[in-house]
Amino acid sequence: MNKIPKQWICLVITVLLMSLVMSAVSENTDDVHAWIELAEEALRKEDYDTAFHYYELAADAGNVEAQFILGGCYFYGSGTERSYEKAVEYLSMAADQGDPKAQAWLGSIYYFGIISGPDYEKALKYLLPAAEQGNADAQQMLGEMYFYGSGVVQSLETSMEYTRLAAEQGNAPALYDLGWLYDNGVGVEQDYGAALKYYLAAAEQGHSGALGNLGWMYEQGCGVPQSYEKAAEYYQLAADQGDAAAQTNLGLFYEYGDGVPQSYEKAAELYQLAADQGYAAAQANLALLYEYGDGVELSYDKALEYFHLAADQGNAAGQWGLGQMYQFGLGVDISYEKAAEYYQLSADQNDPDGLECLGYLYLNGLGVEQSMDRAMELYRLAAALGSEEAQRQLEIYGN
């Protein structure tokens, strides 16, 4: 009986092993597909716990899409307890397999410092390959990084290249960014028509910043016919999304009756929403309503509280407001020295009210050494910025 050649035996064993491996892979693939289908079915039923369970099985088996979804589940706490660390773990699994969505998401986590402060080096590690695969979110964020010089050499040219790539795919933040650049003439020639085009495209996707800026364009008549009514419409759309700047601007409209029925109560409501988000301008405006009792119950304590919150952020109106409180002893003991201190802070920012009030203190030697020259200098600065009271004082004193 002839012996079977040794190399044949090795070949047979190899073929058998390969068959077993391929069979296992096939079974595993079938399992993964089944798990994904079960997860999707559970999602349709809004059974997030069950969906999470099956996505976890698929993700641990190496399925990229499941890893990406599971990263999102941990990021938002859907079907499980929120954990940014676990989110990064699963997103990294997908990113390491080249998934651009996961790479972009990881890049954003490191760019915005969601876990432990910005890490631009790691952000670039994930954003660059995602952008090369055409991911618009990654391209938009790289545009921002090059615009601000965050972890890279600042380059408006490179920033514009990435931003345009993202905008061409309809990315709303990139469309907004382009609109802002043309609106302000940064890196490009100022062009309100182009700004309007890009803002509108972003606004159609509900981008709150674009909606708010469209409101501003209509309020000021920049590239469009001036219209408080149209401005109010756009501010309202942005305010409904919680945009603090739009809430504040719309509050001003209600306070003065521009494009909407005048209502201190509505103004106070909108200012409060923005003030609760730490928006300094809204805090200063709300403080004024409390100081005079317009739309709210008069309260010097509340006025002081909100003026302080605004002033602590360097807001000139908040600093001026505190100066008023100390000058006239509203909720505090009169202190011309403190009033001068806060007016000076406001004046340093070329605030006409701060300049005019500081001029008054110098004119009368209140809290500062009396100086007609200094008073007139301050009045001239304030008048040039539109202060009618400063202009009146200049006329009285012949300057």
Structural overview:
Helix content is 72%, strand content 0%. The chain is an all-alpha fold and 399 residues long. Helix 12 (228-239) crosses helix 13 and helix 16 packs antiparallel against helix 17. The protein is elongated.
Give a quick summary of the entry.
With about 400 residues, this protein is mainly alpha-helical. The protein has helices spanning about 5-45, 50-60, 65-75, 85-95, 100-110, 120-130, 135-150, 155-170, 170-185, 190-205, 210-220, 230-240, 245-255, 265-275, 280-290, 300-310, 315-330, 335-345, 350-365, 370-385, 390-395.
Q: Supply Rg.
A: 31 Å
Mean pLDDT comes to 91
| Number of DSSP helical runs | 21
Straight-line N-to-C gap: 127 Å
Give me the count of strands: 0
Share of residues in helices = over 70%
The class by helix and strand makeup works out as mainly alpha
Largest sheet: none
Overall shape? elongated
Strand content: under 5%
Topology of helices and strands:
Blueprint: H1 6-44, H2 48-60, H3 64-76, H4 84-96, H5 100-111, H6 120-132, H7 136-148, H8 156-168, H9 172-184, H10 192-203, H11 208-220, H12 228-239, H13 244-256, H14 264-275, H15 280-292, H16 300-311, H17 316-328, H18 336-347, H19 352-364, H20 372-384, H21 388-396
List keywords for this structure.
single chain, 399 residues, 72% helix
